[in-house]
Amino acid sequence: MTENFPHLVKEMDLQVQEARRTPNKRNPKRTTPRHIIIKMPRAKDKDRILKTARERNSVTYKGIPIRLSADFSTETLQARREWQEIFKVMNTKNLQPRLLYPAKLSFRIEGQIKSFIDKEKLKEFITTKPGLYEMLKGVL
After folding, report:
1. Mean pLDDT in runs of 10 for the chain (140 residues)?
2. Which domains, from first to last, does the chain contain?
3. Whether pTM exceeds 0.85
4. Beta strands in 1-140 (DSSP E)
């Protein structure tokens, strides 16, 4: 972390909860490449590191380029799964749905992009749009 993000390490009290190496899923007998899983107690830290890594376009570990990717907690995965049926219906109707991080549904309607954090807010919104209400009444 200090090699790639020295200013972030100084700014925030960066604490790694757990770090471990995992074998390559395709061939566990191969020694490289391996994944390093790092768990952090605060999601804000992870978000800031990933954002900085995207801006830099290259992150290294001991001088070797590596790739960072976000991993979701079980709570986040469950919240994203709850949107799946609605997502599928909207996708068939060409509303261009997207699941944003962490579990926010976004879609295009009438030339505007609408985003909803939970199903209750979506229910309130669709009552004002009869076509959308008919489309989603069986799913919500």
Report:
1. 66 59 58 59 71 76 70 76 91 90 87 92 92 89
2. 6-66 (3.30.70.1820), 74-137 (3.30.250.20)
3. no
4. 18-22, 35-39, 59-61, 64-66, 98-100, 104-109, 112-116
